[in-house]
Amino acid sequence: MAGHSHWAQIRHKKAAVDKKRGALWSKLVRAVIVSARQGGPNPDMNFKLRLAIDKAKAANVPRDTLERAIGRTAEGGTTYEEISYEGYGPGGVALLLRILTDNRNRTAPEIRKIFERHGGNMGAPNSVAWQFKRLGLFTFPLEAVGEDKLMEVALEAGADDVQQQGKIWQVTCSPDSFTAVKEAFARAGLEPEVAEISMIPTTNVPVDAETGRRVMALMEELDDHEDVQEVYSNFDIPDEVMAQISAGK
To answer: Mind listing the domains of the chain with CATH numbers?
Structure first.
């Protein structure tokens, strides 16, 4: 799962410093609106909406912006379709995208062109989805908590696994246990860097520095597309290679 963990860190950092904050907020607000329309405007009764709100708050979307977005759900407006696109990137890396679009006839060719520009290709439905599993995901810096404490809190709350992945701890659980695990961390005073329901790869594809750069460039452009909510991949880059890429070497 190292590939996903690395990308989770990169996305988290990117969200915090992205100069295109308006575009990021627009995506997050769109997810809130769609979740509220699908399951109702009460986050206590709509788990998907609660996740969308938590993610928006983590990116510092103002509370009044979220409240207005939820309030607009009863007013109609643009209808968004939630779909998945799949494909392969450089080095045979699998990519799974979660999309919210108001026009799939526009979005599909745009996403296909991005794949092609970076030496990848879109695939048919379920061409790569079978390589991922939907799980709750939490990450912590190694220095933030000791292994014994983290395992005690996580496993007692219903988490399935605690692993060290490079410089982070990664905790996974079933989606049904996500809220219980998250609340247990809060009670223990542990604040995860990432807390989300994610698509975790079941197998990883090792890549070298050059392929890693190409994969990262592809994922970055996909992530910047206005209709792309999430980008998941199964690449595995060693820490030393990731350091080289981060340093621009």
So the answer is: 2-75 (1.10.10.200)
